[in-house]
Amino acid sequence: MAGDGSSIQEDDDLVFRKICSLLDPLNEKGVKLTRATDLVADLEIDSVTVLDVVMDIEDCYDISIPVNTISETRAIGELVDAIHQIKKEQA
Amino acid sequence: MGLFDKFEKTATLYNGLEAAGRNPFTVVMEEVLGPTRAKIRGRETVLAGTHNYLGQTFEPSAIEAGRKALAEDGTGTTGSRFANGTFSGHKALEEDIAAYLGLEHCVVFSTGYVANLGAIAGLVNPAEDVVLIDADCHACIYDGCQLAGAQTIRFRHNDPESLDKRLARVPAETKGKLVCIEGMYSMYGDIAPVKEFVEVAHKHGAYLLVDEAHSFGIYGENGRGVSEADGVMDQIDFYSGTFSKALASIGGFVASRHREVDYLRFGSRPYKFTASPSPASIATAGAALENIAGDASIRARLWDNANRIHAAFTQLGFRIPAPSAPVISILFDSEEAAFNAWNFLLEQGLYVNMAIPPGTPGKESLLRLAVSSAHTNDDIDRIVTAYHALASSLQQAPIASAE
Ligand SMILES: Cc1ncc(COP(=O)(O)O)c(C=O)c1O
């Protein structure tokens, strides 16, 4: 339901949790994942691996996330926001 | 300060490799002894990690052509293709490549890397077009997309269905769609299902570019590449290639059945703003092309050598990720294992390439061997013997757990 604050919040949580589940196997140091967690600085994930995770997200939500968008994204929260933005555009 | 901080981690890694004895990334060919032999660290070594697929580096007709060009046209063009660096040799070679491929149009660039930059950045307008690339494409295709500044979407490696889904999602208002794949991928030696990619791309009104850097001169009945082997030479839209592998020179090209490819001559910065290949480079590439186009036995010898090595490695029990091809890789459980194996082989007098993540498919650590038609029976014996010794040493003391 567009415009309904609580459902956006719920959707946000779902996307966040989905990303966390994809990142979990790569989180070798067991860093606590929050929206502020930086993929490269905190999780030490290389750029190609980030692109591979994004491909899983694309197939999960049936959206396309351009490589250019990803290179501007550093924190998990930014990725969540980018996914929402693209889901809206590609809906 | 600051500026150099980012190198610290890699510098530590490289210095560590150097200290451990042998750094795969600082090998020097001290003396070249022939198409498949060089002196490395004072010792005669079999080269199985260069891209001299068709053994053309010492081809007498190419050396003669290069000498003649040096004497007649000088050492360098001192200019770009666009301005003052186009000689009659560059034009003649464009025609020869076009004729060989059976594509009408061809544009020669300074290297294969520059050719892909030039094609992608020249063709794609970031304001209205989109590029879709195979996830395992070479760095120069990624860099071409960056230079273009266009929306770039990756699809799963060698997966036409993954491309299909992504093309279906491209917004209707997008004007041009360019899909980029390679013929043979150089890490595993696996080949693309080009025919299926053509079908998917064209179904969505997209253009298909195939980089045949590693397959030009090698695949297909006439050696035109994987596109020929798949029967779709007349359907692909752009064909990029290099002179630095099968032709044993330096330079690159983009060929096409679309005459609009000529627009790159004024619309592509990598064509306009870097010097053209030297006359001798052009002449040797041309002579090598004439040679390989006219003699199918060179290609046959390469395949024969590849099949022999692939069969031997299979028998030795290595993990090999692809069927027989001019690149034959074996996979290891860790970077350290690959590094140790690389050193082991060099000590046996064999040079191959080590590849470790992140630049490898599936984050694998591997040794890749590039076969040459010029590998002699003696070379192949030495290759197989060295890998045999490696297999034995792995069995006795699994390299994965070595220090
Ligand atoms: C797939 C691919 N394309 C292009 C190139 C670049 O060719 P060149 O060495 O002529 O710049 C290479 C070689 O490294 C390659 O592997």
Mean pLDDT of chain B: 95
Q: What is the CATH architecture annotation of the largest domain in chain B?
A: 3-Layer(aba) Sandwich
H and E order of chain B: HEEEHHEHEHEHEHEHEEHHHHEHEEEH
Helix and strand element order of chain A: HHHH
Overall SS class of chain B: alpha/beta
The CATH superfamily title of the largest domain in chain B: Type I PLP-dependent aspartate aminotransferase-like (Major domain)
The distinct ligands, each listed once, are: pyridoxal-5'-phosphate
The figure for the number of domains of chain A is 1
Task: Identify the overall geometry of chain A.
Answer: globular
**Helix amount of chain B:** 40-55%
Cα gyration radius of chain B (Å): 21 Å
CATH secondary-structure class of chain A: Mainly Alpha
CATH topology of chain A: Non-ribosomal Peptide Synthetase Peptidyl Carrier Protein, Chain A
Strand content of chain A is under 5%
Largest sheet of chain B, described in full? 7 strands, mixed
Number of strands of chain B: 14
CATH superfamily label of chain A: ACP-like
Overview of the molecule:
The complex is a heterodimer of chains A (91) and B (403). In chain A, 59% of the residues lie in helices and 0% in strands. Chain A has 91 residues and is mainly α. Chain A has a single domain (2-90), classed as Non-ribosomal Peptide Synthetase Peptidyl Carrier Protein, Chain A. Chain B is of the alpha/beta class and 403 residues long. The longest helix of chain B is centred in the C-terminal third of the chain and has 20 residues, at 296-315. Chain B has 2 domains: 5-57 and 296-396, Aspartate Aminotransferase, domain 1 (Alpha-Beta Complex); 59-294, Aspartate Aminotransferase, domain 2 (3-Layer(aba) Sandwich). Chain B starts with 7 loop residues before the first helix and ends in a 7-residue tail after the last helix. Chain B is globular, with a radius of gyration of 21 Å. At the A-B interface, helix 2 of A face strand 6 and helix 6 of B. Bound molecules: pyridoxal-5'-phosphate. The site of pyridoxal-5'-phosphate (PLP) has 14 residues of chain B, from helix 4.
